[in-house]
Amino acid sequence: MGTGTVVGETEQAVPAYGLSGLGRGVWRLGGVSAELEVRGGKVALGWRDAAGRAVRGVPGCVRREHAGELAPLRAAVRDIEQALAAQAARLEREFLRGRPWAYDAWRERCLDHPLVGTLARRLLWTVDGAACAHTDGALRTLTGERVDAGRAVELWHPLGRDRAEVAAWRTRLERHGITQPFPQAHREVCAAEPAAGHLLREDRFDARARALGWRYTPGDGARGSATRDLTHWGVRAELPIEAVPYAGGRALAPGVPRFHPLGSAGVPPLVVSEVGRDVGLLVDAAGIGNDAAPAGGQDRALWASCAFGELTPAARTRRDVLTRLLPRLAVGDRCRTEGRFLHVSGVRHAYRIHLGSGRVLLPGDRHLPLATAGSRAPQPSWLPHEGDRMLSVVLGTAQLLARDSEITDPTIVAQL
Fold first, then answer.
1. What's the CATH number where 281 sits?
2. Last residue in a domain, options 254, 280, 307
């Protein structure tokens, strides 16, 4: 992806937050032990008595004799969870950092770090070009060979990789039950394509764009733009935007991303792919299809074209993931993916759940305005990565509708 072996200051500055082992910390409060354990992006707090037996809840002796130590312990749980989210976001930004780590420094500050290591060991890496992942207690290639030394380390990206290799890594992660902290093995490889048929809410677009490193400029009239400077690559990405009337105000129609090289090196394919992925994420986060449907007229037609329109790259990846996950669901034999939808066969109806918006269509293209309560339904024992809220919504809604004869909520029943 790049040249050099620079290790950024952020890798050196990450504290261990009191963790004494990889994702684990033990605090003694009298004869009782408090145990913190990082589980994915969350932190579990458990207790053991003086005999080493696990106990539920905070022991009474701790409440009586160590009440002053409880608040800092609970604060540590919150701090670690916030740090995990921040470090996961930082690691994901490394795709566009363009500079590899020196192996020894990466090993110390990333793979073996008590906090960062819980993220790094769920990701794929290349060491001197050899793709590897931490499985069975060591860094290993797809063929199982250990990787114990090297010079330059980079995050693995599916761009330019053989399809068989990508599929093999996905299978490997699934077999080991590894949920990645962000999409990597299932990361979209994108072209600079238009977000056809999608309209965006301006406030949500602005907030999400800033979170992704873009700067939105509304412009003087109907046309504006969002830009992202990728200075290491010598590129500025620009997303043209046109404002259109919608629901008494206006919505934004994004165009095709443009690239402005700041030098003579051109635009690397990785930059094109990651910018295209950003555009898809902006559409998914800010699309008007996320809102309640307008009453009727032209606004209703515009809303429906977005709520049930063409899938973004992230939604197409979601379709692939769902196809793989369905056999793990108790209702999987009543579900199938096709086109833009997850089709669900209930007792009352056959349903179509849009894979981008999570919106549901009944027969005759009648919209079923379900709340996202279905996302609280049990999830499969394994998900390929964290951070896809819509995947959970679609899975939960499918499980709800596949058992539609068991629905008792009168508001939902009245609409079926």
1. 3.30.310
2. 307
Amino acid identity at 160: G
CB 114 within 8 A of CB 145: no
Per-residue pLDDT of the chain (416 residues; tens, 9 = 90+): 443 334 443 445 689 998 989 999 999 988 899 999 999 999 999 999 988 899 988 888 888 888 888 888 989 999 999 999 999 999 999 999 878 999 999 999 999 999 999 999 999 999 999 999 999 999 999 999 999 999 999 999 999 999 999 999 999 999 999 999 999 999 999 887 766 678 999 999 999 999 999 999 997 778 999 999 998 899 999 999 999 999 988 999 999 999 998 877 788 999 999 999 999 999 999 999 989 889 888 999 999 999 999 999 889 999 999 999 999 888 999 999 999 999 999 999 999 999 999 999 999 999 998 865 444 566 777 899 998 989 989 999 999 999 999 988 888 888 88
Contact 291, 367 (CB under 8 A): no
pTM of the model: 0.89
Query: What is the residue-wise DSSP string for 134-191?
Result: EETTEEE-TT--B----SEEEE--STT--HHHHHHHHHHHHHTTPPBSSSSTT-----
Task: Decide if 197 is inside a domain.
Answer: no
CA 165 to chain centre: 22
DSSP-based three-state secondary structure for 227: strand
Q: Which residues form the domain of 130?
A: 98-175
Give dist(CA 179, CA 173) in Å, integer. Answer: 7
261 located within any domain: yes
Helix (H) / strand (E) element for 26: namely strand 24-29
State how many domains the chain has: 4
Statement to judge: residues 102 and 155 lie in one domain:
yes
Whole-number Å distance between alpha carbons of 275 and 282: 11
CB atoms within 10 A of CB 17: 17
List, in order, residues 6 or more apart from 414 with CB less than 8 Å away. Answer: none
Tell whether 2 is covered by a domain. Answer: no
Tokens of 387: 């951070």
Residue 191 forms part of a structural domain: no
